[in-house]
Predict the structure.
Amino acid sequence: GVTLTTLGIYGAAVEVAGGLRKLNQVVNPIFAPIVAGLTVDGDQHHAAIAFSRVSQWMLWILLPLVGVLALAGSVVLGIYGPIFRQGGLWLGIVALACATNAFVSLAETVIMVQKPRLNLRNSVITCLVALTANLWLISRFGATGAALGILLPYVLQGILRYRALRTVFRWQNPWGDIGRPLLAAALAGIPAIACRLLIDGMTGQVIAAVVFLAIYGAVWLYQRRSIPSAT
C-alpha cells in the first residue's frame, strides 16, 4: 500500500519529528565534559546524580513537544498541505521514537567515556534488531511499520544502556528523577486524550493539545520549586 504520495507524507513526518533529536545537541556539549571528568576520577556517585538531573530536565522539555505532535499531528503536518494531514499517526510514533533517542543518548556519553566497546556492542545489537524489525514491519504495515521500526530499536537501545549503567557503573537508579515529568505527562494526557476521542476533526486535536499543555504547564509550575538544578 506504499505509494509515492505516502512516502512523501512519511518523509515530512520524519523531518518534523527529527527536530526532537536536536535537543540532545544542546545538552551534550555541556554535559559530556562534566560527566567525563567525574567518571574518570571515579566519582560515580556525583556522576549518577548529574546524569539523573539532566535526564529529568530533558524530559520536562521533550514530553510537551511529543504530546503536541501526538495529539495534533495532523494539524502540524497541515502546514505542508491538506493531503499531509493523513500522516498524523506516523508523526506521533516517530516523535516518540526521536524523543526516546534524544533521552537515552545521554547514557551513550557516559558509557563512551570508559566502556567504548560495550557501547559498540549495544549499537551492533540495536542495528541488527532494527534491520530485522524493519524488514518484517514495513512489509506488513507499510509506512506505519516503518515508524514502528524506528521506535523499537530506540526503546531497545534505552534498555541496553540502562542495564549497562546499573551493572557496569553500579548506578542503582540512573533515571531516578524522571518520575515527576512522567507524572505530569500522565495527568495532562488523560483529559487530553479524552478530548481527542470525544471531539472530532482538527478542532478536537487542537483542543486536546491545548488541554495537555495547560495541565502539564500547571503541574510544572507547581513542582518547579522542588525541581533540582541541572547543574
The mean pLDDT is 86.
